[in-house]
Specification:
Elements (H helix, E strand, L loop, with lengths): L6 H13 L2 H8 L3 H15 L4 E3 L4 E3 L1 H27 L5 E7 L4 H15 L3 E7 L2 H10 L4 E6 L6 E16 L20 E4 L4 H9 L12 E2 L2 H9 L4 E5 H5 L8 E5 L5 E9 L5 H15 L2
Parallel strand pairs: 3-4, 3-5, 7-8, 7-9
Antiparallel strand pairs: 1-2, 5-11, 6-9, 6-10, 6-11
Organism: Sandarakinorhabdus fusca
Pfam family, one: LysR_substrate
GO molecular function, one term: DNA-binding transcription factor activity
């Protein structure tokens, strides 16, 4: 009789691969660290190989361990699809749904839409994970997320996209830095010597520059923010000007700062979208969730 790894053991393995820390991996799996460690030792004993090198400082996967964890992601993704088949055949949006949301959307859109989602789908157990587009899309591909709320354009791999709405960009500047500003700002008038943007890894930086037709602009590396809140504080300190999406403006990001926001001429915008793996058995549920998000955001 052949003994096969359990899904629980594979979940422990992938969690350790993602978090690279036994304590954080155990927390992600809602078990104690000793339980997770014991499960991994059982998996290694079952396979007859060492998968992880353990020491007090780092967790390092062996070369064979990297191959095994890649297969583990595939197995868990298929197991999740199997569960999705049964979920899709019953009541929609019931049970667990793991949703990734990027940082330039999460704090500004979720407070507007979550009350309606809860009201319409009271039996939905929504797990939210805030992350930048690249890691979120990687988690979606691995099967550790079911869907991702992000901004287009962005290459998220082999996914189905449901655009929800356009989110226009605004130029934000200190009131003392532009006398009698026009109702709209021409993209060509943006001063690249004083432009403040998010640091590398945030899709908003490239999306904003491309949307306004100025992809050649480059912000000063010494003046890059880690978040939209940081950018606003930098502009308030008269370090320059920046591009902020309308979602954040509508949420009151610059309220009380004395800063001025003007839309960009030409309708420069990013597109907020919900994406999920192609051929997911829960695609109908994700479209229903997307329709709810779209309606709630339009209020």
């Amino acid at each position: 009789m052949t003994f096969l790894p359990t899904l629980k053991q594979l979940q422990y393995l992938t969690a350790l691969h993602i978090h690279a820390h036994f304590g954080r991996a155990a927390d992600a799996c809602f078990v104690t660290q000793s339980t997770l460690s014991a499960g991994l030792r059982e998996l290694e004993s079952l396979l007859g190989v060492q998968l992880v090198e353990r020491n007090r400082r780092v967790v390092r996967f062996t070369p064979l361990g990297e191959q095994v964890v890649t297969k583990a992601y595939d197995v868990l993704r298929e197991a999740d699809a199997l569960t999705g088949l049964t979920k899709a055949s019953g009541e929609p949006l019931v049970g667990e749904l793991r949703l990734g949301v990027i940082p330039t959307i999460a704090p500004y859109l979720l407070p507007r839409v979550l009350p309606r989602v809860r009201a319409e789908f009271p039996d939905l157990k929504l797990y939210l994970r805030e992350d930048m587009s690249g890691p979120a899309c990687e988690a979606l591909s691995r099967g550790t997320l079911d869907a991702v709320l992000l901004a287009l354009p962005w290459d998220c791999g082999t996914v189905e996209q449901m655009p929800l709405f356009d989110d226009p960009f605004y130029l934000v500047f200190h009131s003392g830095d532009m006398i009698d500003p026009p109702p709209q700002v021409a993209p060509g008038a943006i001063d690249d010597t004083s432009l403040l943007m998010l640091e590398d890894g945030h899709c908003l930086k490239d999306q904003g520059l491309a949307a306004c037709g100025r992809p050649e602009l480059r912000a000063d590396p010494a003046h890059r923010g880690t978040s939209l809140v940081t950018l606003v504080q930098m502009v308030a300190g008269r370090l320059g000007q920046t591009l902020i999406p309308g979602l954040a403006i509508d949420a009151g990001l610059i309220a009380g700062t004395g800063l001025v926001a003007r839309p960009l001429a030409g309708g420069a915008a990013r597109t907020v979208a919900l994406v999920w793996r192609i051929a997911s058995p829960r695609a109908g549920e994700f479209r229903l969730l997307g329709e709810t998000l779209r309606a709630a955001a339009a209020r």
